[in-house]
Amino acid sequence: MHSSSEPSPRQSWIAERRDAAVAAFTAKIPGIYQAGIELEPPVAAWAAGDSDCPSLFLTGPIGVGKTHSAWQATRQWVHGQFGDSYRGSPVVEFYRSTALFDALRPDAHDYSGRALVKHLQKVDLLFIDDLAAARPSSWTQERLFEIFDERYINRRPALITCDVLPSALAEVTGDRVRSRLAEMCRGGVVLLQGADRRRSAAA
Ligand SMILES: Nc1ncnc2c1ncn2[C@@H]1O[C@H](COP(=O)(O)OP(=O)(O)O)[C@@H](O)[C@H]1O
Ligand SMILES: [Mg+2]
């Protein structure tokens, strides 16, 4: 028998997997985003699973810390996926929007576009950085729609950083993705404010 203060064998087993998954995720975080930072309360709430909205849309001007917050929030989100309802380590996929749109092109070499669409429809968390930075084509917008429609109907979360609001994304993503993203991120749009941290670092 185990006392209530002592973890059960199952809890210890889950904690081991959690620590391994967090370490593996941390190893993927780019160097400048490795440092732990204080997250804005709604971002911390999302990372802890305490937000009503399963997706997170981080917006605000250049240099306020959107990408840094997103990496650190995702690290905490991974940690939080190992509660009592644990069902295996979560798969997180990270893409800069420019790289994603390139990879979805019909002439992309490194990964068959079809396989990539299927993969990104299913991953547990899809993290797309700087969504408004990509240059769309009608082909990539179609693929993006396939990804987001499937995620939308299955309530799979997305984490987006972007310097415009979801409502202003139609030019990049197409209107159908804009509409789904607006719905997926309702209650999960967080505006980060402040000075450009890159400038203050250089000053
Ligand atoms: N809360 C923070 N504390 C300290 N440095 C931060 C914080 N948030 C961001 N930074 C740093 O500021 C710079 C810009 O952050 P970044 O997340 O790239 O901005 P954005 O994605 O909004 O353009 C980076 O060097 C980042 O490490
Ligand atoms: Mg950024």
Q: Terminal Cα separation, in Å?
A: 61 Å
Cα-atom radius of gyration = 18 Å
Q: Which runs of at least 5 residues are low in confidence (pLDDT < 50)?
A: none
Strand arrangement within the widest β-sheet reads 2-3-4-1-5
Shape, per Cα inertia axes: globular
Q: Roughly how much helix do the residues carry, as a percent range? A: 40-55%
| Helix-strand topology string | HHEHEHHEHEHHEH
Name the average pLDDT. 93
User: What is the structural class?
Assistant: alpha/beta
Small molecules in complex: adenosine-5'-diphosphate, magnesium ion
Total strands: 5
Please provide a brief summary of the model.
This protein has a single domain (9-202), classed as P-loop containing nucleotide triphosphate hydrolases (Rossmann fold), CATH 3.40.50.300. The protein has 203 residues and is of the alpha/beta class.
